[in-house]
């Protein structure tokens, strides 16, 4: 695949997401596609081709700027809402792919509410999320998890959280774990105002077919259960 074809595929994906009103995802595609087109244009010697590429760059750049303004307006008005429908047995929905675009230097603390961070694989999912947060959020100082106790292996659950707490401290991040017997809702709240509500919580991945298959480590390759992801924005996020 040549450079121009790669750009076209990325931009087509952006248009598809744009049409579905998944604006923040579309914006990422537009930005990536535009960078490829700009690089191609700079190396183009044929003036006709160069003018064509310049026109396409301007076209998609204008749309990207329009999306930025639209998202900003919706955020200011408290009306931003983006929804992703994850279909049963679909792939391509690792945490970074799903909401990594919201993880940046503006995130200073994260609140995770999920009643099912109890069993080994559920705690592993939480660990994967913590790894992503540490790598993506340069100013992260605290992660607060509210979940329920594992009646069958509470000692193991506490040990896993204890080990993770010690590891996170090495990166200057404090982990606070709160247990609730009445928690039902599942959401990830970022101090930057973004709120990611996953119907099934963090545990929407299907069990791998064996211990040596694709998807064991890269969750983009893991099949999923059907669930709905709602992304909203609030200007009044607080660390309670």
UniProtKB/TrEMBL annotation:
- What SMART domains has UniProt attached to this entry? MIT (SM00745)
Among Pfam families, the record links this protein to: MIT, MIT_C
Q: Which InterPro entries match?
A: MIT_dom (IPR007330), MIT_dom_sf (IPR036181), MIT_domain_contain_protein1 (IPR052817), MITD1_C (IPR032341), MITD1_C_sf (IPR038113)
Spell out the Gene3D superfamilies in the cross-references: MITD, C-terminal phospholipase D-like domain, Phosphotransferase system, lactose/cellobiose-type IIA subunit
Query: Organism's domain of life?
Result: Eukaryota
- The segment(s) forming the MIT domain are 2-78
Q: Which SUPFAM superfamilies match?
A: MIT domain
Name the chain's protein: Jg6037 protein
């Amino acid at each position: 695949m040549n450079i121009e074809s790669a750009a076209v595929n990325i931009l087509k994906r952006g248009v598809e997401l744009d049409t579905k009103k998944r604006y923040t995802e579309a914006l990422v595609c537009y930005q990536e596609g535009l960078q490829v087109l700009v690089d191609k244009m700079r190396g183009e010697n044929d003036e006709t081709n160069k003018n064509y590429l310049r026109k396409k760059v301007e076209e998609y750049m204008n749309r990207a700027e329009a999306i930025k303004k639209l998202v900003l307006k919706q955020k200011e008005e408290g009306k931003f809402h983006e929804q992703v429908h994850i279909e049963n047995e679909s792939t391509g929905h690792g945490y970074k792919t799903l909401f990594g675009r919201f993880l940046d230097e503006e995130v200073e603390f994260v609140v995770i509410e999920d009643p099912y961070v109890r069993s080994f694989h559920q705690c592993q999912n939480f660990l994967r999320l913590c790894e992503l947060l540490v790598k993506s959020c340069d100013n992260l100082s605290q992660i607060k998890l509210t979940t329920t106790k594992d009646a069958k292996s509470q000692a193991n659950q506490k040990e896993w959280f204890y080990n993770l707490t010690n590891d996170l401290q090495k990166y200057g991040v404090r982990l606070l774990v709160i247990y609730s017997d009445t928690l039902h809702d599942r959401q990830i709240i970022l101090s930057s105002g973004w709120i990611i509500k996953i119907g099934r919580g963090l545990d929407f991945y299907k069990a791998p077919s064996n211990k040596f298959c694709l998807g064991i480590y890269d969750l983009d390759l893991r099949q999923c259960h059907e669930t709905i992801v709602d992304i909203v924005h609030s200007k009044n996020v607080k660390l309670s």
